[in-house]
Each structure stands twice: as C-alpha cells, then as structure tokens.
Amino acid sequence: MADLGSIYGTTIDGSNTLVIDFSNVQINGTIKLPDSSNNGYGNTGELLTSRGANNTPHWVTPSLTAIRFNGVFNNTAVASGGMPLLDGTRCITGFNADRFTPIGGGWDLINGIFTAPRDCFMNFNFMITAQISASSSEAVILHQRNLVAPFIYEYQMSLMQNTSSSFSFYNFNINGVLFVRAGEIVRVGLKTSNTFTAFSSGRNAAVSFSGYNID
Known about the structure:
The protein has 215 residues and is mostly beta strands. It is built from no helices and 18 strands.
C-alpha cells in the first residue's frame, strides 16, 4: 500500500500541534479558527490576518485604498491644436504639475488620463478658462466605459453660449460623480470643432482636473 502521508501530534515552540503531512489536503465542511470574533468563523467580507509569531490570527475588515489626484497647467500656455479628438471631444493633454502627490494610482499627468485602479464611485472636477471662437462650447468630463471596443461614452457637461462671432473667454467649472470600474478611463476636454487656448501664470491655473474616491 502506498504511503499517503500521516497525521500526528507534536510540540512546536512549546505548543501542542497537530501536523497533517499530505501532498494534497481536501477539506469538507467548516474550519473553526482560534479567534474571538464571531466564534472563530469571521464575518462576511473579512480577511484572516496574521498577528505575528505566537499569536492567533484574527479576522479584520479590509480597508480600501484612497484615490486622490489633481493635475494642472502651471505657468504655461495651453493650445488645443495637437490634442486628441475622442468622440467629438478635444481632450486636454500636457498637464505639467500636480497640486499634491497623487495617491492610489491611476493618474497619468502628461496624457491627462485617469484609469480607475479599482471599482469605486469617484467625484471629478474640471476647471478651464479658455479663449474660443465658437457659437457654443461644452466642457466635458468624459467617461469611457467598458474595457474593449465598442466603448460607451458618458458625459458630465457644462454649456456656454457665445453671442459674439469673435473670440471670447469662457470659464467652465464642473463636477461629476461617476461609478468607474477597474481599467475604465476618465478624461476632460471641450466639445467644440474650433481650436482654443488658455494661459496660466503664477499661482493661477487655467486648467485643472482632479478626482477623489467617495466609497
């Protein structure tokens, strides 16, 4: 008869220990662990966490990683000429500074793209002061849903109407709460067929894109 393994008792570090010595172990039923929470079984959604040597593990509620970012154009001109056009939106790229160190991942400063690192609700803000020659323009927080094409585009918009045919300055400041799934992206821009410019100097930022999770 083949040697399938063994079960035996021994003492390890002064504690009586049951050793199960098999190459594969299949457990049918429920395992109760030596922990005081919920009779040792834990609660739904909790994780079993080590407390180090000679201490029993315990069940804890996992904490979600915070997500924060705020990219700006700092003391630099903004020109839309080379910015990508996505679903009719001229997307802002070329952010050159962060108001604070981003946390939680997902923020691409240079390309102006936020890629959700996990499923969560996010609050986004987009602010731009721009000079545009157009009868009307929309500032857009653009959510590219789904991870593969065909994509679905979700918008948060702010509309400005221009009564003059000449260049006019627009100030947009919009907020939007979106539910994003891991890997989906969010960008900002203007829905206009015309070019636009903006300029910031000193402490002023002509363009700002920020977001934070609100789990």
